[in-house]
Design goal:
Length: 603
């Protein structure tokens, strides 16, 4: 949804939880391999990274660290994640569908009717699932996290209570990358926690550098040096506010003056040349894309600078990943480390077409941020990319984050390092976000729980290990008849073989079910619903089965993501005070205007 990120996203005791989690050590340690044979595991998660934002996927952005990992392992060209943040993270860490894991959506978009009717509609990670960190901890791994959490802030929901022994976590949907301040008006503060307690950031903070520094410190300081470690590194890059050090921004000065249409085309061509997509992939020009040639020279320079900051943020993340890799090499850990890199969802298109306008800039001005071209990306600035450049980030795919189109769900996945036999290989095999947890467990030699764990009932992992693909042993881990479903606020998907059944709701979608062969047509240009009616109906039936099996709730009448967000904000923050509601209405009016304007550019 184009407008959603204009607004901030809001939402047993810890001792009992920790005691329960600690009970697993004796149970699972016998299942693990000998320490000398077990790899360290580094799971790196980017935020809102588009499908072709890495050079090894077709980008012009310099990402040598991740490209080197790609050359030493396998790139997945048909890997899919959820269409927004928290559900993706829940599935990534548990291997269980987001609805069953308690995170069908971020809590800020859940309707009160849904919350009241079902305990699994709270938007926080439930205790009916077990994280991969808990399972690895129980098997003797050292477990660390440094980065964005967004799966619950109550003591029993914090990462320190979900299997991570050392943590520094940003608990919200996002925050400033240069200092400890909220990134949007409705956050009172930027909520950072270290080892479960509130934490104040240092003065010299930049998010990507800081998170890697903390992870290296965790690894270096742990007294149990003989045990392998699991390091979960969920970056804040490239979630808004888009910010980067000047030295990285400078690398892209003037690089985007040819505009978004040219960039989208160039990325498609490079991705095809690399083998990431078929040679003849067609792609739609999304109606949310503006006319570059109609811009003034000054406006072109400003838009190009916005994208340069974004590219700089991607490169800065890559550079700090490179520091972590060099650190592991210096310690002698690199050769025995498995690396997994991916993104939580696809490209973010919520930035306004031009944030300098009076209406578009009200929110950032109230927060004290600048959107002026001078200093864009630096401390005190608020950067975004427009829907137009977001279309290049997603090239050659359609739609964005918050939607079930390929641009919102298909993202990079690289698996490399210890135990990965495939080298510089691209697999077109379908893979899904719930596959990451069982893949990690497979490499660690740790068994997944079935229906019970540590004395309580839990949801079994439904994902499949991708290790056979990384070993070049099989062509796919899913058969032609295996179905994988997904739902987010009425956006629906069923994957089966090469087919994808999909419906995208408004404002960018039209609510109609369509059928695509995404192996041949990842741009989702050729609707096969009429020409393959049997396949279409079979998959519609399969989607209904998914809905029932995963307890997907219907939406209240008239539900929209934007409308529900506004209602939840007012209800939670302001109660029923008429004067305050009036003030809020006046405050939100400009953003509603932006939303209406953006809807005019719908697909």
């Amino acid at each position: 949804m184009k407008f959603l990120a204009v607004f901030p996203l809001l939402a047993v005791s810890s001792a009992v939880v920790l005691a329960t989690e600690d009970m697993t050590s004796a149970v699972l340690s016998s299942l693990a391999l000998d320490d000398s044979r077990r790899p360290n595991i580094v799971l790196i998660l980017a935020d809102d990274l588009g499908f072709t934002d890495l050079a090894s996927y077709g980008s012009e952005i310099q990402t040598p660290s991740l490209d080197a990992l790609a050359a030493q392992g396998v790139r997945f060209s048909n890997y899919h994640s959820a269409a927004n943040c928290a559900p993706a993270r829940a599935m990534l860490l548990t291997g269980v569908d987001s609805h069953l894991a308690g995170v069908p959506n971020i809590p800020e978009l859940l309707a009160p009717e849904q919350r009241a009717a079902a305990t699994h509609y709270r938007g926080v990670l439930g205790h009916n699932v077990v994280t991969v960190a808990t399972l690895l901890e129980g098997a003797g791994y050292r477990t660390y996290m440094a980065g964005k959490w967004h799966l619950g802030m109550a003591p029993e929901q914090r990462p320190i209570a979900r299997g991570f022994q050392r943590t520094v976590a940003m608990m919200d949907s996002g925050a400033d990358n240069w200092e400890q301040r909220p990134y949007l008006p409705l956050y009172d503060r930027a909520n950072w926690f270290a080892d479960g307690e509130r934490f104040n950031l240092p003065e010299d903070f930049y998010s990507s550098e800081f998170l890697v520094d903390k992870m290296m410190a965790f690894i270096d300081a742990d007294a149990r040096q003989g045990a392998p470690f699991f390091a979960y590194l969920p970056f804040m890059a490239v979630h808004m506010p888009v910010q980067a050090p000047q030295e990285f921004i400078d690398h892209y000065e003037g690089a985007y003056l040819q505009g978004w249409d040219r960039l989208r085309k160039q990325r498609r061509e490079r991705a095809a040349a690399l083998g990431i997509i078929p040679d003849d992939v067609a792609m739609v020009r999304m109606a949310t894309t503006d006319d570059w040639d109609a811009l003034s020279p000054d406006d072109k320079a400003y838009q190009a600078k916005r994208m340069a900051v974004y590219a700089g943020m991607v490169e800065a993340m890559d550079a700090h990943i490179g520091r972590l890799i060099e650190f592991l090499k210096a310690r002698g850990d690199y050769d025995n480390t498995l690396f997994i890199f991916t993104s939580d969802n696809g490209s973010e298109a919520s930035g306004p077409a031009d944030p300098r306008g009076f209406v578009a800039g009200i929110g950032t001005r109230r927060m004290g941020y600048s959107v002026a071209m001078d200093g864009l990306g630096l401390k005190g600035s608020f950067g975004t990319i427009s829907p137009s450049f977001a279309s290049a980030s997603a090239s050659p795919l359609a739609f964005y984050k918050f939607y079930a189109g390929e641009g919102g769900m298909r993202v990079p996945l690289i698996i490399a390092g210890a135990g990965v036999a495939a080298k510089d290989t691209i697999t077109p095999a379908f893979a899904w976000v719930t596959d990451i947890a069982p893949t990690i467990l497979s490499y660690a030699g740790v068994s997944a729980p079935a229906s019970r764990y540590a004395g309580r009932e839990v949801e079994p992992i439904t994902g499949r290990s991708l290790r056979p693909l990384a070993a070049s042993e099989v062509g796919s881990v899913y058969g032609a008849n295996d179905a994988v479903g997904y739902e987010l606020t009425g956006h629906g998907v069923l994957f089966q073989g090469d087919y994808k059944l999909v419906v995208n709701q408004g404002p960018l979608g039209d609510g109609q079910w369509r059928l695509f062969n995404i192996a041949e047509d990842p741009g989702e240009m050729i609707d096969l619903a009429a020409t393959e009616p049997q396949q279409f109906q079979t998959m519609l039936n399969g989607y209904q089965s998914y809905i029932l099996q995963n307890k997907v709730m219907p939406l209240p009448a008239g539900y929209t993501q934007m409308g529900q967000l506004l209602r939840n904000v007012v209800r939670k923050e302001l109660g029923d005070m008429p004067l305050v509601l009036l003030f809020t209405a006046l405050l939100l009016l400009p953003f509603a205007v932006i939303y209406k304007l953006n809807r005019k550019g719908s697909l």
